[in-house]
Amino acid sequence: MRRTVYNTDHEAFRTTIRDFIATEVVPVYDEWREAGAVPREFYKKLGDLGVFGIEVPEEYGGAGEGGGFKFHAVITEECARAGVSFGGSSVHTALCLPYLLKYATEEQKRRWLPPFVSGDMMTAIAMTEPGTGSDLAGMKTTARLSEDGTHYVLNGAKTFITGGVQADRVLVCARTAPPAPGDRRAGISILAVDTTSEGYAVGRKLEKLGLKTSDTAELSFTDVKVPVGDLLGEEGKAFGYLGQNLPQERLGIAVAAYAQAAAAVAFAKEYVQDRTVFGTSVASFQNTKFVLADCKADVDAMEAVVDRALDAHEAGELSAADAASAKLFTTERAAVVIDKCLQLHGGYGYMMEYPIARLYADTRVSRIYGGTSEVMRSIIAKSMGL
Length: 386
Description:
The chain is an alpha+beta fold and 386 residues long. 49% of the residues lie in helices and 15% in strands. It has eleven helices and ten strands. It is globular and about 80 Å long.
């Protein structure tokens, strides 16, 4: 069935990205996995390709594409198809950029967006803290305004920060005021912190189950001076900002889950056609055919959900509940599909040299980050009036 969610521009871009992956990523991807990160210079190549500037207005060096999120969805699909990753670049564009575009002042945009587009300034966002998990309102990191009002003094720690090792500027969520009576969410602000600041430290580079080329770090702040000119948006309003961007973040995770499941089916189909057991192709067994047929049906359903959500997002109509539903369905079904496809590989499916094993490890976190499946169910239930 032909997909209608993408237009000719998206498909032309897909060809460009597919060729780029084949020449610039696939030949060196094993080296990246061993290193546990994408080389910093690779982000410059993405900048040169125009990946970081798709949604950035032309006056700041971007392409100014409206509805640019679909281009990022194409990148996600092509990376999954090839069994590779662009490291922390998705956080740079899908998570950090919306805050810069919507809440940065004109002066901040002129200062930050050109190097953002070129890849000279990579960004990350720091929300989660040790011991708080999904309870962002419980964060302990503080940013106290100095007596002369020229800067904030930042203290605290963050964890699970994707791209945190290589980032040049990190959007740090911190308490600039205590919680208001009856409202724990009040008093949180976003500071765009220069990672070369004194007192800013990258702690452990965290060893993860999957997503090996995406650097993930612990961060700490000890009396870090952050100029007031680096406050993003209004003081104390960050929790509302974070909530507004969550639907897009969750849609991005849904797209990745669908793409990974589709890739798993392709990998499994190729493997069983080449592999012989008892003198015959594994693909010839009825069980193999039925398992892959079930997986294909699941992928078709995920595609329909994702495409509907992509169109709704482009039209500005993707609600929090819709995004939660898309994320819940695709991530839960992707886990089932990828597990079945790994099983069809037999023992080789457990070997990391095979892309199915990497997919199996990579997709597990999709039911955790961006809001756990349990949180998604709570959001959906609330939207049902339950």
